[in-house]
């Protein structure tokens, strides 16, 4: 099944648009797990077990694993293997480079890690994204308007009467491609989201920035106008509780966010 069909099937089956981020850091996981062989894997497996009934996707930001070197990459691999097959896996790697380098990135994420989707950076243009876009069974999620304050530095600059992020969305949509496409739009920009939905109503949007970054779910869901979305929450679920209750607290937080986000067909 290709990634877009898998997304639709999963979201319909559990009436959820929630994407749960697995941005795991040793300094934030309960102390008693630190003596396990791989504390990150133990923590992630319990988070997955506690929250999977609400998860349409898990987004794994590779930076949190890369910081621990070989052990971190092993933990990343084992975490992805622990995610049930019917749930979308997004490698949040924000990749892209000259063509042959992007091909290597695409093989790493799609053929070695077996993720359904990847986040990519459009700054280097078509040839840098082509190796990802060629993969017909996967989803490529392009950074458009990010949640951070620095999104104003370049993404909102006006060129030929439109913000750069609008050029990114319209141009990427016009490219010949096999993969399913998505765009990252930060939850901190509900006003722009409403405008984006006027010219990209069918596009999948990955919306991070709820919870720790202060994005407002109600404003975002209203602006989204019922388009296809993954609404991501990472720290707000993973670190909802401390000590031995972390799984229960993550369950409650995931349930809460799933319900707040809602699901209308
Ligand atoms: P929390 O703020 O803890 O929910 O985490 C947000 C996650 O989404 C992190 O993995 C970020 O790297 C990622 N993210 C953003 O926060 N803002 C963006 O604009 C884009 C992303 C992303 O591509 O996922």
Write a structural description.
43% of the residues lie in helices and 18% in strands. The chain has 265 residues and is of the alpha/beta class. An 8-stranded parallel barrel has the order 1-2-3-4-5-8-9-10, surrounded by 5 helices. Helix 5 (99-112) links the parallel strand 3 (88-95) and strand 4. The model has no long low-confidence stretch (mean pLDDT 97). The site of orotidine-5'-monophosphate (OMP) has 20 residues, from strand 10 and helix 10. Orotidine-5'-monophosphate is lined by residues 21, 23, 61, 92, 119, 146-148, 184, 186, 208-209, 211-213, 232-236.
Features:
binds orotidine-5'-monophosphate, 10 strands, 265 residues, TIM Barrel, alpha/beta
Give the overall shape: globular
The CATH class: Alpha Beta
Query: How is the largest sheet built, in terms of strand order?
Result: 1-2-3-4-5-8-9-10
* CATH-defined architecture: Alpha-Beta Barrel
Task: Look up the CATH topology.
Answer: TIM Barrel
The proportion of strand residues reads 15-25%
Mean pLDDT: 97
List the helices and strands and how they pair.
Elements: H1 3-14, E1 18-21, H2 39-51, E2 57-61, H3 63-66, H4 69-81, E3 88-95, H5 99-112, E4 117-120, H6 126-133, E5 139-145, E6 158-159, E7 162-163, H7 164-174, E8 180-185, H8 190-199, E9 204-207, H9 217-224, E10 229-233, H10 235-238, H11 246-261
Parallel strand pairs: 1-2, 1-10, 2-3, 3-4, 4-5, 5-8, 8-9, 9-10
Antiparallel strand pairs: 6-7
Helix pairs in contact: 2-4, 2-11, 5-6, 8-9
């Amino acid at each position: 099944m290709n990634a877009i069909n898998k997304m639709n099937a999963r979201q319909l089956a559990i009436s959820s648009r929630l994407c749960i981020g697995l941005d795991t850091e040793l300094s934030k996981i309960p102390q008693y797990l630190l003596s396990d062989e791989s504390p990150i894997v133990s923590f992630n497996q319990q988070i997955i077990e506690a929250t999977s009934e609400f998860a349409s996707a898990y987004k794994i930001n590779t930076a949190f694993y890369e910081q621990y070197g070989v052990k971190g990459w092993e933990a990343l691999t084992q975490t992805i293997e622990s995610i049930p097959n019917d749930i979308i896996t997004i490698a949040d790697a924000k990749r892209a480079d000259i063509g042959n380098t992007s091909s290597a990135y695409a093989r790493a994420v799609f053929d070695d890690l077996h993720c359904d989707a990847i986040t990519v950076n459009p700054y280097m243009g078509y040839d840098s994204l082509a190796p990802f876009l060629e993969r017909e069974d996967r989803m490529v999620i392009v950074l458009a308007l990010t949640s951070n304050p620095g999104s104003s530095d370049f993404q909102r600059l006006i060129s030929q009467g439109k913000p750069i992020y609008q050029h990114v969305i319209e141009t990427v949509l016009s490219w010949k491609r096999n993969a399913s496409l998505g765009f990252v739009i930060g939850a901190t920009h509900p006003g722009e989201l409403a405008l984006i939905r006027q010219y990209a109503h069918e596009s999948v949007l990955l919306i991070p920035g709820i919870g720790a970054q202060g994005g407002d779910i109600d404003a975002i869901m209203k602006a989204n106008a019922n388009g296809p979305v993954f609404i991501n929450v990472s720290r707000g679920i993973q670190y909802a509780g401390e000590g031995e209750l972390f799984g229960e607290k993550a369950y409650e937080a995931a349930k809460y966010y799933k319900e707040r986000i809602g699901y209308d067909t």
